[in-house]
Structures are given as structure tokens and as C-alpha cells.
Design brief:
The complex is a heterodimer of chains A (182) and B (384).
Chain A (H helix, E strand, L loop, with lengths): L1 H17 L3 H10 L10 H5 L34 E3 L16 E2 L5 E5 L6 E5 L2 E3 L8 E3 L27 E4 L2 E5 L6
Antiparallel strand pairs in A: 1-6, 2-5, 3-4, 4-8, 5-7
Chain B lengths: L1 H17 L23 E6 L9 E6 L7 E6 L5 E5 L4 E11 L2 E12 L5 E7 L14 E4 L4 E7 L3 E7 L4 E7 L3 E6 L4 E6 L4 E6 L5 E7 L5 H4 L6 E3 L2 E5 L4 E6 L6 E2 L4 E2 L9 E4 L5 E3 L5 E9 L8 E8 L4 E17 L6 E6 L4 E5 L5 E6 L6 E6 L2
Classes of the chains: A alpha+beta (182), B mainly beta (384).
Chain lengths: 182, 384
């Protein structure tokens, strides 16, 4: 499985870097620079516990990676769809204990408001435990229909894990988006 | 003394006279049944149940009943697919299970449920553990061949379609579908799919469920800028798609292979946009039998807004290519359905779980069913 994981990881990074869409997504990312400063979708908002206390903020402590990782507004979540692993026992780049990270996934390109760079984000799902149920977040910048699996966040990407039961989603930086014309 | 005794007797008897007869004993072990023929006000609401996707379900809902709209539930586990057939009197679900709930041996299966009892009456186990799991698209599981067969999408991420003979209770073939997704029944026996290169691909199936012929039409979709929502609305044999930016395109699927309906058109604009009106939601387009399209719109349209949900429905005549009405909605809505009534009602499934019913002729709000039938209602199925 480790070999397969590594292969899949390389493939993900390779697809991300070679995708002909990346310049478009970088443009889109540039177009939405500062998106993290705006409130997000009503869907994501509605997913919280109505009337219940919010999660306390979790930050990186690094000014170059700003924002609350329990909030749907966090810059890396620009194309995420699911429960935020930071609220589920994991983190922005690690799955919760007891789960398995799916090696295949979808990607997004999000602009970091701190350095204004477009980063390729891999939204690996964590699998094998039932729905986390905390911090549901759905953002769709750059999301495209299922004809483009690598840029569609409606697939259950836990199909790459031993169990396809979905728990939560991470948002791992896998590289910088290169700026090339379409 | 006699008078005193009489008073005592009357006092003792008075409460007994005022009290009604006790409630009758009731039979035990009763289970309600649905009508033999579901009323035309019935729809089915698909609840993905985010907080326990393993326990997804279909809610049978009477849109005419404000106080008891939920008529029953059918299990639809793990981002399941669903099909409904009045002709067969059956509901079909396509699901995935693990032997230890979240782990263990995976079993994919189609279950056939009786529409009157909502009890299972048959099962088809699917080999290979490859059923596609997604949030939630009706066109991953479709009928063909006059509802004798079902077509089911697979994704491993290799893409294929299983051809299932429902009455024989077996998978009879698998069609490889590299680079294409979704199943749009086409002709008597076959389907079309949209593909990553912007084409539409049609397959004609023979009597054994094997590919007899196929055809491709290139450049029907500009995925970067005018991507179609994957779920179209059907008027007769024509599937009407709408793009993320509001372009409407029809495909005639009545013949053996898809044909482009000439003359794509834009939904246009309307006041109140910030920055612009666009379709948004998970089930954004539907149609009535009079040939009108209903499109779920948000005034806050921009890149990435296409699944936020909408707050208005634009009613469109695809022949005149013109909007004929706007129906304001009570709240952000994820999916719109229509009842089978002679004058159909529009059914809106809101983000907060509320189901609201609107008059398609006047656009008026008719009634709310409250958030009483589903936790996360995404799709409203018309039962035909």
C-alpha cells in the first residue's frame, strides 16, 4: 500500500502541475484574492449547529499561513466539500486517529492572502470511520462537473482507501500553481 | 334518611355519568401501508444525511399534507442511487455496505423495494466493489429498455456502466466509459454520457446488453467556462441542460443516439443581481408536462457559486427561448422538483431542511412542510 500511496501521491502532484487548467485556476484564484476575508456560502453556514457555540479558532501561528482552520473561510478551503478534519481530531494536513487517508483525491487552486500566491491544494479524504459531523464546509471555486473527476468535489474519494466510508477532508499544500497560458 | 341516601347515591353516580366510555383496545403489530397507487401529490426526497452518510435515506413525502407529510422511509446507504417506477410498482436503490458497518468486506447491491409496503422484495449483488459514490446525482442510476434494465455508474476511478437485468436479478454486462460520466437514457435501449473532452457519447445496446454501436458529437460542452450541471430536465425525449452561467442547451435523446437541439440560449438577466443571476444548487433545472423549464437561480452568481443554492425559480419556455415567470422562494433552496398533479406544484428543498410548496401557475407560496422529512434534502424526485 505504501508504494501505491507514493505512486498516487506523485500522480496527484503531477496532475496538479501539468493540468492545463492550472493557469485558469490561478487566474480564478487571483480573481478571488481576498476571498478568505468574505463570509462564505449559506450552505456552509447552515451546516453548523444552529444556535450552538462555534468551534474555538485554530491557527497555524505562522503569519504566512493566516486564518482559522476551523472556519470555512480559511484560504485553503476554496474548493473543499466535507467536514474539516481540524474539527475532527486531525488537522489541515492529517487525518484523525483511526481513519485512513485516501491517496486519490481532487484538487483546487487557492490564493493565500498572505503572499498572494496560488497554491495547489489536495483535498484528501479521511476514511473508515463514519461522518465526523463537525464543521461541514462546501466551497466550489474551480469546481467542475463530474466529467473532470480531478476537479469535482462531489465524488467520494474514499474509494481509494480500504473503506469508502467518509469521515472528513484535509487540505494539503502540494505545490505552487504555475502561471502558464491555457 | 332516605333523602340522604339518595343524595349519596347521586353524588357517587355523577362522575361516572360525566365520564365518556373508555378508549377501545387497539390491535397490536399494525404497520401502515401506502396507497396502492401513490397520489400525484407524492414525491420522494433524497436525504444524504451528512452526519451519517452510511444511513442515507429516501423520504416518501405527501406535498399536500402540511401536518403529516412524511409517509415512510427507504434506506439508501452510502451516497446511494434511487429509481422509481409506477409501472413496476417498485423503488430501486443502489447502495454500498461493509460487513462491520464502517469496515470489513464491501458489498454493493441493488435492492428492489415494494412501493406499497416499502419492504425489500429482491436484491442484486454487484461484483467488483466499484459502484460510484457521489453527492448526489440521479443520473448515476437510470432505467433503459422500457424499465426492464437499470444502468449503474461505476468509478474506481476507472469509469464504466453496469447493465442490470432487473427481473433476472443479475448484471448482464459492463460498458467501459473512459473519460465520460453520467447516464442519460437514449432511445429504446442505450444511453449517452458527457465526456471530459467536451463531447457527448452515445451507446446503443443490443438485446444482451452489449454495445451494438456508438456515436460521438464533439464540442458540445465548454467545461472551463460553460460547464453544464449534470442533471438535466426532460421534456418528452429532450434533455435540457443549463450551464453554470445560465446557457440552456437541449439534446434530443429520443432516437438511438443523441442529437444537439440547435439554438442554445441564455437565461438572460433580471434586477436584483449581486453581481449576477446564475443557476445554483444540486438540482437546478426541472420541467413540467406543459413544456416549461424551471431553473433555480441565485442573484449572487460568480465563480464557485454553482452549489450555494438559489432563492428564485425562473420559468422558461424553451421554444420561445424566453423567461415567462419568476417564482420567489422562501429561503436558500438546494433542489427543485415538481409533483405529478395535473397542475403541478413546485417543491423546493431548502438548505435548512425545510420543504416548501409553490403554485407553478401563479408562482404563489402554497404551504410549508417544515423541516420534517429529511436532514439534508438535496433532490426531489417526481415519481412516474
Amino acid at each position: 500500500m505504501i508504494g501505491f500511496d507514493k505512486l498516487a501521491e506523485r500522480l496527484t502532484r503531477s496532475v496538479a502541475r501539468q493540468s492545463s487548467r492550472r493557469s485558469l485556476l490561478a487566474l480564478l484564484g487571483a480573481g478571488i484574492t481576498g476571498a478568505a476575508a468574505f463570509p462564505v456560502l449559506p450552505v456552509a453556514r447552515a451546516a453548523g449547529h444552529a444556535g450552538g457555540p462555534a468551534h474555538q479558532p485554530v491557527t497555524s501561528g505562522n503569519p504566512q499561513d493566516p486564518g482559522d482552520r476551523t472556519s470555512c473561510d480559511y484560504w485553503r478551503y476554496c474548493a473543499i466539500d466535507g467536514f474539516l478534519c481540524t474539527c475532527c481530531g486531525g488537522s489541515v494536513n492529517a487525518c484523525p486517529p483511526g481513519t485512513e487517508m485516501s491517496p486519490i483525491t481532487w484538487i483546487g487552486t487557492c490564493t493565500n492572502p498572505a503572499d498572494n500566491r496560488a497554491y495547489i491544494i489536495s483535498y484528501n479524504d479521511c476514511c473508515g470511520v463514519s461522518s465526523c459531523g463537525q464543521c461541514l464546509c462546501n466551497r466550489n471555486e474551480g469546481d467542475r462537473p463530474q466529467v473532470r473527476p480531478q476537479s469535482n468535489n462531489d465524488y467520494n474519494w474514499c474509494i481509494g482507501a480500504q473503506s469508502s466510508v467518509y469521515n472528513c477532508s484535509t487540505a494539503v499544500i502540494v505545490g505552487l500553481a504555475l502561471d502558464k497560458p491555457l | 334518611m332516605r333523602l340522604f341516601a339518595l343524595a349519596l347515591a347521586l353524588a357517587a353516580a355523577a362522575p361516572a355519568c360525566a365520564q365518556p366510555a373508555p378508549l377501545a383496545e387497539e390491535p397490536l403489530l399494525q404497520v401502515a401501508r401506502l396507497p396502492d397507487v401513490w397520489p400525484k401529490s407524492f414525491v420522494v426526497v433524497h436525504d444524504i444525511n451528512f452526519n451519517s452518510i452510511l444511513d442515507g435515506r429516501l423520504a416518501v413525502v405527501d406535498t399536500a399534507s402540511p401536518n403529516q407529510p412524511l409517509k415512510g422511509l427507504v434506506r439508501d446507504s452510502q451516497m446511494g442511487g434511487a429509481l422509481f417506477s409506477r409501472q413496476r410498482g417498485e423503488i430501486l436503490t443502489a447502495e454500498t455496505f461493509y460487513s462491520r458497518l464502517t469496515r470489513g468486506e464491501r458489498t454493493d447491491a441493488v435492492t428492489i423495494w415494494d412501493m406499497k409496503t416499502l419492504q425489500p422484495k429482491g436484491e442484486i449483488v454487484l461484483p467488483g466493489g466499484k459502484r460510484q459514490q457521489s453527492v448526489i446525482y440521479p443520473h448515476l442510476f437510470q432505467f433503459t429498455n422500457h424499465q426492464k434494465w437499470a444502468l449503474l455508474a461505476n468509478f474506481t476511478p476507472a469509469q464504466s456502466v453496469s447493465v442490470i437485468d432487473i427481473d433476472a436479478r443479475k448484471v448482464i454486462n459492463e460498458i467501459d466509459l473512459p473519460g465520460c460520466s453520467q447516464i442519460y437514457p437514449t432511445g429504446e435501449r442505450g444511453f449517452s454520457s458527457l465526456c471530459a473532452d467536451g463531447s457527448i457519447f452515445s451507446v446503443v445496446l443490443d438485446a444482451q446488453g452489449k454495445a451494438a454501436s456508438s456515436a460521438t458529437i464533439r464540442n458540445v460542452q465548454e467545461i472551463d467556462h460553460q460547464a453544464y450541471f449534470s442533471t438535466p430536465a426532460y421534456i418528452g425525449g429532450t434533455a435540457w441542460f443549463v450551464s453554470q452561467r445560465g446557457l440552456v442547451q437541449g439534446f434530443d435523446l429520443s432516437g438511438p443516439v443523441a442529437k444537439v437541439v440547435p439554438g442554445a440560449f441564455s437565461l438572460g438577466t433580471a434586477p436584483g443581481a449581486d453581481p449576477e443571476w446564475r443557476p445554483s444548487g444540486y438540482q437546478v433545472i426541472n420541467a413540467d408536462t406543459a413544456g416549461r423549464l424551471y431553473v433555480l437561480m441565485t442573484p449572487h452568481g460568480k465563480e464557485g457559486s454553482h452549489k450555494d443554492g438559489g432563492t428564485a425559480v425562473w420559468v422558461v419556455d424553451p421554444v420561445r427561448k424566453a423567461r415567462v415567470a419568476i417564482i420567489p422562494l422562501k429561503g436558500p433552496t438546494m433542489g427543485i422538483g415538481l409533483t405529478e398533479e395535473d397542475v403541478p406544484h413546485l417543491v423546493g428543498a431548502q438548505v435548512d431542511g425545510t420543504i416548501n410548496v409553490y403554485d407553478t401557475q401563479s408562482g404563489a407560496f402554497v404551504r410549508s412542510l417544515g423541516a420534517t422529512v429529511a436532514f439534508n434534502p438535496f433532490l426531489v424526485y417526481t415519481v412516474r
